[in-house]
Amino acid sequence: MDSIDLGKDNAQQLNKFIELAAQCIDEDRRDDAISLLSSAISLYPASGITQEELNQTVPTRSEVLTKLGIIFSDSGTNLDPIAVHLFQQALVYDENFVPANFYLGKLLMNNGNIAQALKCMQNALDNSIEGDRFYQSAKDSLEEMSELVDHGDTIFAIDYLIGQSMSHAIIDSPIGTFKKMDFDQIENKYDGSVQLFPTEATTQKLNQIREFNSNHGFEQTSLEEFLPANLPLFEAHNDLPTYIKDKYTLVDMGAEIYDVCGLNVDPQLTFTFYKLIQRETNTYSYLLLAGKSPLEIKDKQLSRSEESDYDGAIFDIYKNRILYNQDSISGFIAALAKDYFGDQFKDDNIQNLVINGINDESFNHDLEFTDDFNINNSRVKVLIDTDIKA
Predict the structure, then answer these.
(1) In this predicted model, what pLDDT tens digit does every residue of 111-138 receive, in sequence order?
(2) Residue partners of 360: CB distance under 8 A and separation at least 6
(3) Fewer CB atoms < 10 Å away: N or C end of the chain?
(4) CATH number of 3-145
């Protein structure tokens, strides 16, 4: 493969970014470290290896991607889907890179993906030297996995990266909030289609991603150029009678949508939030229909947002297993209502709370509803009736 000359200025800038990122890591400034390492990644060419990497005057791209993955996963202890993608990207550039193989293997092992984890750990062991920092750990992990059974659980949000080959460079994922226009009267669209548009913050964020992608081999126009020609991608097709009784009037709605894919994705990758009026009581209700991946992403976004009072966590990791915390649901819905519609309600306002799991059968399009949601369900349905008058 031909090498590319990065250039003296770019090489110095890249090394400076990495030096500053190391300082931020030491000072526990996570987001600053991610931003700096992402800036370093942006200096590498879209394809090919640089002469500086070959001469070892700058770190390899795989090293920087792995550093980012280590931050997102807390050194492989936190089952983070962005980290999984980062380690996978590092292995695209160097399939034998030991740290990426080790940390990816660790995450996959913790999630029950034993067959894939074995491959990564074996690769880490084969390419490390006895006595180095990864050799014994990889060997111990291989011995531990010899007694484990492959559960085949998917990493929740790994699939949100469809069409986003380099979006790991942005702190947030390529998912954004889309809402109906204020003038759009949707009372009669309970079982109809509603056109959704990105918020200003979403447009800005997705344009950052699109610009980065365009500079790294995945050409994309700005969202403002892309949207008019692709409006059907962002048209929500409601089917509310399938999910709730016909005693509500739809008044507002929005969604978290994957850039490029729009709503043209599997049901388990959708996230739609509705504001309703219960006709009998003339009070507000809220309905969430969401797959696990976008639910996990939005949960993290709201818990980290300075504009939100929400500090819960719907999903957590305990002893390397994913746990679902139902107690956080009502607070999450309240935070969503504020984020989407500017509404506020408290637990005292809740008159009824219903949580169901949904299993999507893609072959015959049948839906199965369970009385409670668990992590084996493909989607969750949450309905909250409040006492707040419309």
Answers:
(1) 778 888 899 999 999 999 988 889 999 9
(2) 266, 267, 268, 367, 378, 379
(3) N
(4) 1.25.40.10
